[in-house]
Write a structure and sequence with these properties.
The complex is a heterotrimer of chains A (400), B (252) and C (345). Chain A is mainly α and 400 residues long. Chain A is built from 18 helices and 6 strands. Chain A has one domain: ABC transporter involved in vitamin B12 uptake, BtuC (Orthogonal Bundle), CATH 1.10.3470. Chain A has helices at 6-20, 22-25, 43-66, 74-90, 95-117, 122-141, 145-148, 200-220, 223-233, 235-239, 245-270, 281-294, 301-318, 321-327, 333-343, 351-365, 369-380, 386-391, and strands at residues 154-155, 177-178, 181-182, 186-191, 194-199, 273-274. In chain A, the strands form 3 sheets. Chain A has a two-stranded antiparallel ribbon with strand order 1-6. Chain A has a two-stranded antiparallel sheet with strand order 2-3. In chain A, strands 4-5 form a two-stranded antiparallel ribbon. In chain A, helix 4 packs antiparallel against helix 5 (95-117). The N and C termini of chain A lie close together (10 Å). Mean pLDDT of chain A is 85; it is low at 384-400. In chain B, 37% of the residues lie in helices and 24% in strands. Chain B has 9 helices and 10 strands. The two termini of chain B are 30 Å apart. Chain C has a two-stranded antiparallel ribbon. By secondary structure, chain C is mostly helical. Chain C has a single domain (2-45, 110-331), classed as ABC transporter involved in vitamin B12 uptake, BtuC (Orthogonal Bundle), CATH 1.10.3470. In chain C, a hairpin with a 2-residue loop joins strand 2 and strand 3. The longest helix of chain C is centred in the N-terminal third of the chain and has 31 residues, at 2-32. The chains are: A mainly alpha (400), B alpha/beta (252), C mainly alpha (345). Chains in contact: A-B, A-C. The A-B interface holds A 3, 5, 215, 218-219, 221-227, 229-230, 232-234, 236-245, 247-248, 251, 255, 390-391, 394-400 and B 50, 71-73, 76-77, 81-82, 84, 88-94, 96-97, 100-102, 104-106, 108-123, 126, 143, 145, 161, 165.
Chain lengths: 400, 252, 345
Amino acid sequence: MLGLNKKDAGLLFFVAILLVFAPFLLNPFPESSSLAQFNAGYPDLMQRFAIFGIFAIGFNILFGLTGYLSFGHAAFLGAGSYASVWMLKLLTINVIPAIIISTLVAGVFALLIGIVSLRRSGIYFSILTLAFAQMAFALAASVLTPITGGETGLQTALNDPRILDGANETGNIPSPSLFGLETGATWQMPVGDWLFTFNAGYYMCAVMMLIAFYVSLRIFSSPFGLLLKAIKTNQNRLNYTGVSTRPYMLACFVISGMYAGLAGGLMVSMDPLAGAERMQWTASGEVVLMVILGGAGTLIGPVLGAGFIKYFENIFSKINKSVLEGWFSFMPEGLQDIFVTILYPFVGKGWHLTLGVLFMLVVIFLPGGLVEGGKRIGKLFGRRKSKDTETGETNPAPAE
Amino acid sequence: MGILEVQNVNKRFGGLQALGNVNLNVEEGSVHAIIGPNGAGKSTLLNCFVGRLIPDTGSVMFQGQSLLGIKPHEINQMGVSRVFQTPEIFTDLTVLENVMIPAFAHRDGAYKLNPFARVAKEAEIRDLAEHTLEDMGMKDKLTMTASAMSRGDKRRLEMAMCLVQDPKLLLLDEPTAGMARADTNKTIDLLKHIGETRGITKVVIEHDMHVVFSLADKISVLAQGTVLVEDLPENIKGHPKVREAYLGEAQV
Amino acid sequence: MDQIVLQILNGLDKGSAYALIALGLTLIFGTLGVVNFAHGALFMLGAFCTVTVNRILNLGFVPEGATTQSVGGFNFGSPKETPYLEHWFGEAAGQAIVDWSVPLSILFAIPVMLLIGVIMERGLIKHFYKRPHADQILVTFGLAIVLQEIIKYYYGANQIPAPAPEAFVGSFDFGAMIGMDAGAIIYPYWRIVYFVFALIVISAMFAFLRYTTFGMVVRAGMADRETVTILGINVDRRFTIMFGIAAAVAGLAGVMYTPINSPNYHMGMDFLVISFVVVVVGGMGSLPGAVLAGFLLGILESFASMREVIEFLPGVNQVVIYLAAIVILLTRPRGLMGRAGVMED
């Protein structure tokens, strides 16, 4: 199906189901229950799942396949964001040109940075990409203010030309739309005590993510992907095997950058605003984290990692002291205080602390990430034959 | 005219003269062995053939074309493959994938950006790789991860990776080093077999005289960076200069 | 001419901080082979040692019989506290101790940072010697986040000022001292103090590595770890101590930097990125390279901040360090003074 083997087709189908039914799956708790705060089925968060999913899938094509650790991928996301805001300002409020241009601009940006950075490997490559991204960030926040809006950021305005749209009669700043359907448009469906929200922007992101995931599946199973894996394992051998590794690396880097640009374009399509902080190295660190947490080099890992981090970021940030106190109210007072005191630094504004701890635990105990963890659990229950898990990912797929 | 002609090659590392006026003429279709004591410059010489090192002076011609200053992957594309002293393989990949990669490189050239092609549909490449592995006696190990193999198997895998490219010239750097006697004999048979069916020219660096005299059509003796003798095996055996070079190494 | 001298001087204090952090990073990389992304956090922890000492010294109690402060009828809540120090040593001595809290923090920071370093190495880093560099980067990156967030939790997100001793507040006319026009080069005292302090620490480190047997073993270990292990020397324990020392150096750099830049919880990350650039420019694994590159880049940054330069090339001050790193990495792959064979693949 679609040029995929059974296993990959299954994965694609699985992701498609997740994406289509996300508004239900992420809203399992009734509105009136105290667990409703764990619901994640609202548009803003679901959009972020899909967008960061794309970003992580793209990063995984570079890091997972070739082992080149880029610490500057946020620069491409930022470049894509700026490009698409400009398209919304100058050309049309329709998001299609914005998304296309953001992907292309990020691709060109990645090509330029890649040509220079890929002359080195290992930690030198990491530092070079970091240096370029930090430069982009510093310039975007200062000198390039006419293009980037500086520290306040770039956004759409009422008097933007928008040459394709004609006169603006409403007197309001138009919202980004897909051929007239605003990306913010939502439709709510109450079912008993549940409230499910369907959002146009989310489904647009979901479709893009599905395409992005499909492309990544194809790359992983192509000779190109195989050669990228070979670069990770033994670049020296590859040189003496008659392969010029540079074009492969560059192509991989550009593809990966275009994914980041696409993610940036989608972000702007949901909320027409781009700021320099999107390029900062902490943002690059976040995507590294998602991929590592999910499982670098695996197909589904980055999607899971992105979802996991964005979900818990959202949930943990919402928990405050009184919520904690509520949870432990069944305990005797002293014990309750102890638990609340211990847990409090990790929730609310302390989400980053949880993230850091989680990150360390994963790298220390579970270098393969969530996917590896899932496999181990699977093995524990003997659901799979151990042979499958050992050779699963790297086997060339048998012809259907 | 030989397929590989080396003339007056010199290479210095700081104060050390690694190679001094080395001349070598490898006949097409022959097995040319390079022997010599440790530090004689054998591996340095081989590195000059594959683009890892560039000689200070002299010329290295392959089929009448100079190899100096040409990148390793370009030299490989010209038809020169190399087996390393310690096996250089893709340890994370399966045995079959290890052999398919050079097969792709042979068919598609130095690069072909085909992100949407499918490995699974490349039946031709796959068959070729499987046949080559079968020749090497590794048909039962296709799906094994390369890092899990024994040392001897890793060497044979690397040989398969070179042979699948159908090279014109195969460079072997101590192909039997560290192998047990039975394994060594197996490898000798393999190399002979390949020589007969495909007519590949081979340059072999070797310590083991048993291997050298079973395989070689011609032998060059290298010592302290210079070629002492280049002659037929039967003439090398009793040559006084060779004895001198190997003094203390009683293999000859 | 005076402009040049001024910019070199201006570059020295930042350069000193870069050099000190880069020195520790290089030591850790050279001896343990670990890429430590948490080193900036150690710098930050050092700075917060100062904050802690400052707070401890300012601890006070409410004297008996003290009344609630009220000004013009407004009640200001708690009554005025009397610091213990003033109570014990008298007002003048007590205030003097508080005034000198930044230098005094050194005494506090050395054992604390050594301890933190040793715990870090034994508890975490040692398990990563054999893991790939990417894993080391990732785990130390995670640790950096954790340390930073803990500090944020206890000390808040705002900058906390820590003034230099009264004696070093203000500036002096350096130009007049070296025979230039008066007022041409005005330089703050504390920056000179910081530079001299950095020179002392750096010299002490080099002397320690050069003239003690401990240092000799460490240097040998940097060159060839396996051989040293075979010789029956317990390298591991020395490396633990080395990590502690590197942590202490980073911490001291942080302690003394507080009057120049009020500490906040993310200052470590800001310095870390640049320090890594410094290490790479200097040459991975080269101690003199790290120090040299630290000062060079600090000075380069201050030259790029000159008004004439910015007018000519807007924004160059923001990117000059990264630009320099890119140029150097492409022209001299091993950095200014790097050795062959370090992190080549």
